[in-house]
């Protein structure tokens, strides 16, 4: 049984990986808040799954992004390589592409915020360490959802529970997300088979905001009425552009090449994932 060290074990992805795969691996955790990289002894570790990150927040300084999202994983990976660790799996983000409506392996990497830039810089440094003795695997997920996930789908579900009438009728965008179990099984497949490279792991289906609300209302058996309010989207785009982008714009991710490289089939449908979050309070 391989020894896997997980960073960011208190975060959503790290915590769920530990809960789901505790019987598959000997799992260890590491927190930079409690320990230093210099004090680490990694001779018995086979794989590091690096989930720790400083997420996108408006008040975070650029130096903090560089410290946590760039220097931390790079210095950890360098030490890991020097002590014989065989694989480093880095959870990156589609934020490295900026505001693109279609993402595939040919899409230009052009982040439009400091969070995305820090993830891209970390990727580039980590890829420089990849060789026949040290496999670097990079996973770029979109927004992760699932039971108790800290994301907009769960906020939308809470809104549906509270408000029977919502102004989101007829939105025809398409967006891809990733159900936590789809992401975890993809990560596990990469670790089990020691596959290097970068991967776009997401649900196979994309969905519009309108259809997302309709499906969420079905899984909690709550009737919701969707209406159009004149100029609502214009007002939202003017005063809340980030929220407007998430509700109205496209974000289509082509995971075909990833699944072909991994020789892997996404295990859960979008509706399977939506059903899993229906019990949140």
TrEMBL record:
Limits of the NAD-dependent epimerase/dehydratase domain: 4-194
Record-linked Pfam families: Epimerase
InterPro entries: Epimerase_deHydtase, Lipid_A_modif_metabolic_enz, NAD(P)-bd_dom_sf
Coiled coil location: none
Domain of life: Bacteria
Name this polypeptide is given: NAD-dependent epimerase/dehydratase
Protein species of origin: Tenacibaculum jejuense
Lineage: Bacteria, Pseudomonadati, Bacteroidota, Flavobacteriia, Flavobacteriales
């Amino acid at each position: 049984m391989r020894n896997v060290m997980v960073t960011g074990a208190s975060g959503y992805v790290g915590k769920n990986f530990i809960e789901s795969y505790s019987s598959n691996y000997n799992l260890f955790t590491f927190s930079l808040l409690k320990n230093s990289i210099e004090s680490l002894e990694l001779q018995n570790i086979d794989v590091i799954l690096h989930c720790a990150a400083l997420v996108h927040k408006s008040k975070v300084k650029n130096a903090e992004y560089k410290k946590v999202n760039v220097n931390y994983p790079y210095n950890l990976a360098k030490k890991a390589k020097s002590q014989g660790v065989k694989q480093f799996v880095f959870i990156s983000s589609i934020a490295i592409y900026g505001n693109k409506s279609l993402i595939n392996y040919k899409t230009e990497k052009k982040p439009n915020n400091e969070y995305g830039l820090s993830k891209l810089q970390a990727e580039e440094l980590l890829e420089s360490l990849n060789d026949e003795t040290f496999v670097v695997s990079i996973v770029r997920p979109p927004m992760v959802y699932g039971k108790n996930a800290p994301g907009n789908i769960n906020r939308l579900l809470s809104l549906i529970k509270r408000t029977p009438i919502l102004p989101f009728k007829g939105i025809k965008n398409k967006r891809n997300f990733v159900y936590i179990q789809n992401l975890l099984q993809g990560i596990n497949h990469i670790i089990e088979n020691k596959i290097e490279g970068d991967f776009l792991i997401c649900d196979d289906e994309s969905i519009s905001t309108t259809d997302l609300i309709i499906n969420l209302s079905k899984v909690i058996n709550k009737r919701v009425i969707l209406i159009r309010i004149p100029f609502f989207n214009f007002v939202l785009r003017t005063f809340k552009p980030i929220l407007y982008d998430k509700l109205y714009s496209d974000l289509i991710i082509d995971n075909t090449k990833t699944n072909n490289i991994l020789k892997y089939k996404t295990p859960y449908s979008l509706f399977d994932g939506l059903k899993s979050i229906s019990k949140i309070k």
